[in-house]
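Example is below:
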Amino acid sequence: MHSIVMARSLFSFILVAIFSHSLFAERIPTENGIVYDVAAQQQLTMDYYAPQGAGPHPAVIIIHSGGFVAGDSRSSSETYCADFLVPAGYAVFSINYRLAPKFSYPAPIQDVERAIRFVRANARRWDVDPARLALIGGSAGGYLGAMAGLEQAQGNETASDPVDRESARVQAVVSLYGLTGFENVKLSKNEHLLLDPLIRQKGKAAALREASPAHLASKTSPPFLQIIGDKDEYFELSTVTEFDQKLRDVGVSSTVIVIPGGTHGTYDWYRIPNVPDWERRMTEWLNAMLFHTGPIGEGIQRRQPTPQVPSSR
């Protein structure tokens, strides 16, 4: 437990965000720097990866990792998903969002919801089916996706901005090695940067409850898929299984895929001997949730297991 707490430091989170950029050959976006909002005088942008095959297409919105303080829309540990979802017929959008400490809770969640509304409002532009949208978030992005998915925010019919008239509801949520909440854990430095204004406003217990996604779950929530390694340096596997059970308890369809020997981030999983075919299983799960069919397999990284060194006797 002590090593888990120590690993969730500001420096380590930033290292993961930076290190993950260099480990995959990145798929080049079809369009990049698409402005989906201007918040507090900051342009919020997304990248678009055009799907293969005939539309209208289901869409996924990728929410990058980085511990709420770092990372961007090209974080390859998450955008790797575009490599195998684009050939399967998915329109993929990877977003930037406001970061702590300049911006605190709930700003990044609001940005995710704005991105959902923007994709839905512009569905014809990309031949996207607005009724088939999913979120894929990694680490901190997994938390943001869970919150946005569970909030099920409706559109504001009287808004002057047509984007804000659109619903922010999604039909599925995928969390890769995601943060599941803040209650009953020691907050990291990053999490304090995100939550301290809320804590000062409402008190610690009320703030942490409000900011933890399990309390938003209901029988109308979208289905969840969580994927995590059992050697994750940041989050205990038990936090994922406990969140899974809380979702199930209120009637939410929830699935967990465990990567035996997997650490934090997808970028090293292909080296694990006998690693589960999680990319195929994720795509099959999304296909089932979004009523989609398409070829599965292209773009999945070839397995290169780390050679096992014989033990000396």
Remarks:
- The chain is about 35% helix and 20% strand.
- The radius of gyration is 19 Å.
- Residues 149 and 170 are 6 Å apart (CA to CA).
